[in-house]
Backbone:
């Protein structure tokens, strides 16, 4: 990755990039009101990497990065829409993705002017945009995951007894787990989707 491409990746994944992510905690505030502490926060984010967005959203970034046309991105957006069953999380993903593509069309018109999606989920938009900007897939996945973790931790400093310094310690503790999740997705980004598709095979040996 050349210096200009790296700078664009840093810009997209910066917490100051104005897509409105700072206004969302993705349910963390509810946990805070139920007494979540920093140790519990570490456990929660680890679980999300293992079983939540570390599978669904990271996979969507990878598959969007691989997509060759807008029609494929639209089908992926519909798939993500179906998997995000919690209305608040679904709407947040759509808002952030729409804002990302709107801003990208202004900042990088040569790469994103025609990138208009009916269901612009954040992960799909990020994956498609980073490919068009020439950002390598592993770097895009790491940046998306790192930004998601950092956004949660910064939200936690506002609604939990958590200092910015302690938040950085938690981030370091989570980085190996994030690297593991990215490697898993790079190996097979659609592993969970394949398990879902199995139920609809015309002929199969196993129920699941």
Residues:
């Amino acid at each position: 990755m050349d210096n200009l491409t790296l700078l664009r990746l840093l810009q997209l994944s910066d917490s100051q990039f104005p897509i409105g992510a700072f206004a969302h905690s993705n349910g963390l505030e509810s946990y805070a009101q139920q007494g979540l502490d920093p140790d519990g926060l570490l456990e929660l984010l680890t679980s999300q990497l293992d079983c939540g967005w570390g599978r669904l959203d990271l996979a969507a970034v990878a598959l969007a990065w691989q997509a060759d046309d807008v029609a494929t991105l639209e089908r992926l957006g519909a798939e993500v829409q179906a998997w995000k069953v919690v209305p608040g999380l679904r709407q947040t993903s759509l808002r952030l993705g729409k804002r990302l593509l709107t801003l990208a069309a202004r900042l990088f018109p040569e790469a994103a002017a025609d990138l208009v999606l009916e269901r612009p989920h954040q992960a799909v938009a990020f994956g498609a945009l980073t490919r068009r900007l020439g950002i390598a897939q592993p770097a895009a996945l790491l940046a998306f995951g790192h930004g998601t973790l950092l956004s949660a931790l910064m939200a936690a400093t506002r609604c939990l007894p958590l200092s910015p310094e302690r938040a950085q310690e938690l981030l370091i503790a989570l980085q190996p787990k994030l690297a593991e999740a990215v490697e898993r997705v790079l190996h097979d980004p659609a592993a969970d989707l394949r398990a879902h598709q199995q139920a609809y095979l015309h002929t199969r040996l196993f129920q699941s």
